[in-house]
Amino acid sequence: MAVCVAVIAKENYPLYIRSVPTENELKFHYMVHTSLDVVDEKISAMGKALVDQRELYLGLLYPTEDYKVYGYVTNSRVKFVMVVDSSNTALRDNEIRSMFRKLHSSYTDVMCNPFYNPGDRIQSRAFDSMVTSMMIQVC
Amino acid sequence: MRKHVGDLCLQAGMLQDSLVHYHMSVELLRSVNDFLWLGAALEGLCSASVIYHYPAGTGGKTGARRCQGSSLPAEAANRHRPGAQEVLIDPGALTTNGINPDTSAEIGRAKNCLSPEDIIDKYKEAISYYSKYKNAGVIELEACVKAVRVLAIQKRSMEASEFLQNAVYINLRQLSEEEKIQRYSILSELYELIGFHRKSAFFKRVAAMQCVAPSISEPGWRACYKLLLETLPGYSLSLDPKDFNKGTHRGWAAVQMRLLHELVYASRRMGNPALSVRHLSFLLQTMLDFLSDQEKKDVTQSLENYTSKCPGTMELITLPDGLVLPPVPFTKLPIVRRVKLLNLPASLRPQKMKSLLNQNVSTKSPFIYSPIIAHNRGEERNKKIDFQWVQGDVCEVQLMVYNPMPFELRVENMGLLTSGVEFESLPAALSLPAESGLYPVTLVGVPQTTGTITVNGYHTTVFGVFSDCLLDNLPGIKTSGSTVEVIPALPRLQISTSLPRSAHSLQPSSGDEISTNVSVQLYNGETQQLVIKLENIGMEPLEKLEVTSKILTTKEKLYGDFLSWKLEETVAQFPLQPGKVATFIVNIKVKLDFSCQENLLQDLSDDGISVSGFPLCSPFRQVVRPRAESKPVNPPEGSKPGDPSHVKNKASLRHGDVSEMGTPACVLRASAQPPLRKTLHTLEAILNFKYSGGPGHVEGYYRNLSLGLHVEVEPSVFFTRVSTLPATSTRQCHLLLDVFNSTEHELTVSARSNEELVLHAGECQRMAIQVDKFNFESFPASPGEKGQFASSEQLEEERQEARGLEINSKLDVRWRIPSLKRTGEASVEGLLNQLVLEHLQLAPLQWDVLVDGQPCDCEAAACRVGDPVRLEVRLTNRSPRSVGPFALTVVPFQDHQNGVHNYDLHNAVSFVGSSTFYLDAVQPLGQSACLGALLFLYTGDFFLHIRFHEDSRSKELPPSWFCLPSVHVRALEAQA
Description:
The complex is a heterodimer.
Chain A: E1 2-8, E2 14-19, H1 25-46, E3 57-63, E4 67-73, E5 79-85, H2 93-112, H3 125-136
Antiparallel strand pairs in A: 1-2, 1-5, 3-4, 4-5
Chain B: H1 2-12, H2 15-32, H3 35-53, H4 62-76, H5 91-96, H6 105-112, H7 116-130, H8 137-154, H9 157-169, H10 177-193, H11 197-211, H12 221-231, H13 253-269, H14 273-286, H15 293-309, E1 317-318, E2 324-325, E3 335-341, E4 350-352, H16 354-364, H17 371-380, E5 384-390, E6 395-402, E7 409-419, E8 423-426, E9 428-432, E10 439-447, E11 451-462, E12 465-470, E13 478-479, E14 483-487, E15 493-497, E16 516-523, E17 527-536, E18 544-551, E19 563-565, H18 568-571, E20 581-589, H19 598-605, H20 620-630, H21 645-659, H22 664-672, H23 674-677, E21 681-692, H24 694-698, E22 701-714, E23 717-726, E24 732-741, E25 747-751, E26 755-759, E27 764-772, H25 783-787, H26 792-811, E28 813-817, E29 822-826, H27 834-840, E30 845-851, E31 854-855, E32 861-864, E33 868-877, E34 886-895, E35 901-902, E36 909-912, E37 916-919, E38 927-936, E39 940-948, E40 967-972
Parallel strand pairs in B: 3-13, 5-14, 16-22, 32-40
Antiparallel strand pairs in B: 1-2, 3-6, 4-22, 6-10, 7-9, 7-11, 8-10, 11-12, 11-14, 15-17, 17-20, 18-21, 19-20, 21-22, 23-24, 24-27, 25-26, 25-28, 28-29, 30-31, 30-33, 33-38, 34-35, 34-37, 34-39, 36-38, 39-40
Helix pairs in contact in B: 1-2, 1-3, 2-3, 2-6, 3-7, 7-8, 8-9, 10-11, 11-12, 12-13, 13-14, 14-15
C-alpha cells in the first residue's frame, strides 16, 4: 500500500529511501524531498509544545493527484515519510499511524546495531524486509 | 452594481466607502446566486481589508510585482466578464499611491473591515466560488496568489501552502509557454516566501524545464541554465567541491545528480563547453559513490568528448551574473590513500658528521640539556620527517592509489606540487586497472635548491581535466609528514667489484642496508684479492673516503684477519672528479677451524653412509636416510671409480650437501645434523664506505655505501688428529698431523716449505713435522688487559690463541690444489689441545746434560775407552716456583736396534763416584748442577738413561717437565 518509504536524518538527508515502481524513482525522490518543507514547518510549529507531549505522527503532509504523503518525526528529529496511493481509500489514519510505529521500532533496532554508524545509509536487511512487507501488504 | 462602485472607490483610494460598498454587494449577490460576481465582491472586500491592515503592502519584491502586473493585462483579453477586471487592482499599487489610513477611519474599520482571520475565510470562499467556473481559472489563481501573500505576512505558512497546493491544480489550458514559465516561477517565488525552499526549488526546476520544452521552437537554454542555478540552494547543493570533502556525502544524491545532469546539458546547449566540463567533472567528483557502473562510463565518456574540445582547467569560471564556479580537482580519480615521502636509498642517504652535530647543539644553548628546548623542538618537528633529501638527487614520494572506476583509468601527467624549494617535478603517466586495489605510485622529482621542502599535493590529468589536488583537502588520507629538508649536493659513488654479484642478501638483522652484494667461494685457508672500483657518478667531486668493515657474527671461529686493506693508495687519487674511477683493493682471507670433530672421525671409520652423528631419537633420521642413500645414484665428478668404497660414499654425501645447501629443506636438515654442518661455512661481512665532498661536505654531511660480502668457505684440508712425538733432542719434537683432503681434487700439502705431501680426494695421511719446542713463557702478556677485566678463563684463552699463532707461523702449513691452481694456508691453531701444547712447550725446568762439557742433545758424544767422561746434569728453573730436591740415577744401556735393550752393562761401564746425583732445591730462575763421571771400558754405542727416583719426584708437577734427554755416547778405541 505504501508506494515509497523514506527515512530522513536530522540534517535532512536521506538515510533510506525506497519506492515500489523503481522506474520512476526520481519522482518519489522529488516528492519526498519537497515534503520536507511541510515537515519542517510542522515541526517548527510544534516546537513550542512540550517535548514529551508532542505527537510524533505528523499526519497528512500534502496530497497530490495520485498520492498522499504522510510524515512522522521522532524525538531525535529523524523523519519518516511515506507516500501512499491516494486511490487506496481503505487506508485509515490509524493504520498509517501503526505503520509508522512499526517503522519506528524497526529503525530503533537498526540504531541498536553496534556496527551501524549513525548517519550512514541504512543497509540493514531486517529493515529492508520490513519495508517490503509494508509495501506489499495490500497491493 | 454595488460591487462596481466598490471597485471604483477602491481605485479612488476611498477605503471606507469601498468597504461599505463591497459589503453591500456581497449581501446582494448572495441572494442572486451569481457566484462569480459574489467571488469578485468577496475578493474586493478582502483586498480593501488587507490594504487597511497592511499598509506597507504584501509584495516582497517590486520586480516580481511588475512581472505579475505585466502578465495580467495580457490575460485580460481572455476574460469572460468585465467585472472581474477589478481583480487586477493590486493592494501594493494602492499603497504606493500614498493612501494612509487616517484616524477618522478607525471607527469605520471596526464596523466594516474584516479581521485577519476573516480575510482568509473570505478568500477561501471567493476561491471556491471561482472554482465553479472553468473559465475563471486565471482569476482563481490570482486570488490564490493574493491569499498566499497575505498568509505569508501573517506567517501562516501551512495554510499558505494549502492555497498554493490548490493553485497548482488550477487548470489553465490556454496558457502560452512563456506564461507557463512565469506561472511556475511565481509559484516557486511564493513558496520561497513562505519558507518552503525545496518546493520553491522544485517549481523553479519545472520552470527551467519549461523553458526548453520540446514544444518551444526556440529553447531558452540560457534562461533555463539561470533558473537551474537558482534551484541549487533548494537542493542544498553547492558547486564548490570543498563542501563535499567533509566525510560522507549527505544529500539527495539522486535528485542532485539529476540536477547536475541538467546543468551540464543546459550549459552545453548554451554553447559554453568549459562550463559543462566544469559541471560534469563536479558531477563525477561529488557523486562518484552514487553513480552506477554504466553511468560512470557514460559520464566519463561524455567528459572525454567535451574535454577534447575544451580541456578542463584549474581556473575559476565566473558566470556573467557574478556566480563563481571554483575548480574541481579530481581527488577521487584515482583515490589517494596514503602519501609517503621516501627516504633516499640507503647508499645515497646523507648522514651528519657526529662532531658537527655536537657543535650544533652546543651553539644552540649553553645548557647540556634543557627540557624547554627539547619540547619546542618536538613540536616543531611533528610534521617534519627526520631524513633529508639531497639537492640534485632524484627524490621519491610514494602514493598509494586505487581506481574506483569499473574500467581502466589513465592518469597522465601526474606530478608533485611542492613549495619551499625549487623543485623539478618529473611527471609520470600511469594506467590503473579497473577497480584496482591499492596500487603504489612513485612520483619523482629533483630539488634544485636547498632548504625545507613541503609536498603540498599532486596534479593529474584525467579524462583531459587538469586537477591540482592538495593533500590538506583530501579526506581519509594517511600521511607521515610532508616536510623534508633538502641539504646541499653530495657526490655519488658507485661500486663495482671484481667478484660476481650475489643473490644472497645478508641477514636482515644486520641493520645496515646493503647496496651491493658480492659473493665468492673460497677454500678454507685461501686468500683472494677483491678489487673494488669506485666511480664517482655524481656531479660533485669526491673528497673524503673512509672504509670500515664489520663481520657479521658467525659461530665459526675465524683465525687471522678476514679483511685487510690499504686505504692510502686509494686516497692518493682524491679528490675524485665526477666520472673518474678509483680502485681499492681488499684482501679476503678465510681461515676457519681446520680441526675436525670426532663425529667426522666417526664418519670416517664408519663404512658407509653415516647416520651415527644424529641423535638417536631424531625425527629427521627417517627423512634423511633415504635422501642420503639416493645420493650415490648420481655420483659427483670428483669421486673416481677406483676409490675405496667408504671414501666414495663419504665424498658423495658431502657433495650432495654442498649442492643443496640453498634449499630450505637442507637448511632444516643441516640444523638437525651438527656434524655435517661443518662441510660448508658462510662468512658475511659488510664493507662500509663513508664518503663526502662538494658543498654537502662543507655542511658536514656524508654518505654511506655498504658492500655486502658473502664468502662461502669450502673445506680444504682437515687435521683429523694431532699428536706429538718427542724428537731426539729435548728442544725439538715431532708434530704428527693426520691431514684429510676433503675436497674433490688432488691436493698437496707442504709444511715449512720443504715436504710435499700429495693427497687424493678424500684421502687421509699422516704428516710429521719437526718443530722446535716453543718457549711460550717468553711471550709478554699484554699488560693492559691482564690485570683489569680479563678473567682467568679469558686470559687462558688469549694465551692459548697467542700460542697457536706462534706455532702456526712456525709451521707454515700450506696446501695447493694443482688442478684448480689454488693455494692457501692451513692453520693448526684450532686443534691444539692442552696435551699437545704441553708437549710442544719447553718445560720450565730445563735439563741439560753435558758430556765433557759439551751439551749433548741429539748427536752422539764421542769419547775414548778408558778415559773418564765427565757427565754434568744441569737444571735451569724457569718456572715461577722452586723445585726439588731431586735424585737422579744414570742407567747406561745398549740399544741392539732390534728392540732389545741391554741394561746389564756392569762390566762395560763403570761409574766414577756414585751413579746417583742429588740436586738441591732450585729457586725460580736459579740454576743448579751436579757432576759425575763415567768410564767406558769397551768401545760401542752406549745410551745413558737418566731416571728420577720416584720418591723424590714432586707429584704436582707435570711429567713433561721431567723429560730428560737420553744421552748417546759413542766410546771409541783409545788412541795410542
